[in-house]
Design a protein that fits this description.
171 residues; flat; two-stranded antiparallel ribbon; single chain
Length: 171
């Protein structure tokens, strides 16, 4: 009986290997196979960049969903809406941008700023205000995150391994 099981296992492995080889064949030209390795190897760095971009997009979306759940949970706990929670914990705790902050930003960045000074200053105020709000929101979310257990199962893409060959090198 064990010989039969061993034979069955070996035949099954053979079919798996044949199926894998067929899966690696992307096309055939007059019976000559073009494999996935032939296609992917020269594209390795481009594919790696795309995989990294896909991962980053998924990670950003995952972080946004985690933040939404944390805000919703906290708002529910306090019996308020999410906008009311953000108003209480973010907007109300951020001071208005001062003239000194606008002046400092303008002086630090005037070489890169295009346009007349007064119109630039009008654009700087909301820019700095939004930065303050975003920083306070991140602080609040960081505090919420520290109070819960978050398990992230999203795996980053494998690191691209580039083989370098140097003539005369002992490796």
């Amino acid at each position: 009986m064990s010989c039969f099981l061993t034979l069955l296992l070996l035949v099954g492995l053979g079919f798996t290997s044949a199926a894998q080889a067929a899966a690696d064949t992307l096309a055939e030209v007059d019976g000559v196979a073009i494999t996935s390795e032939e296609v992917e190897k020269p594209l390795a760095s481009q594919l790696s960049k795309l995989e990294e971009q896909i991962y980053n997009l998924k990670r950003q979306r995952l972080d946004a969903l985690i933040n939404e759940k944390l805000l919703s949970k906290e708002a529910s706990k306090r019996n308020v809406s999410v906008p009311a929670l953000l108003d209480a914990e973010v907007t109300s705790k951020v001071g208005l941008v001062t003239e000194q902050e606008i002046e400092k930003f303008y002086q630090d960045n005037k070489a890169q700023l295009k346009g007349d000074e007064s119109s630039m200053r009008e654009k700087i105020r909301p820019y700095l205000q939004n930065q303050k709000l975003a920083a306070r929101r991140e602080e609040f979310l960081k505090a919420l995150r520290s109070q819960v257990k978050i398990v992230i199962n999203l795996k980053p893409p494998p690191v691209l391994r580039v083989q370098v060959s140097v003539q005369g090198a002992p490796f």
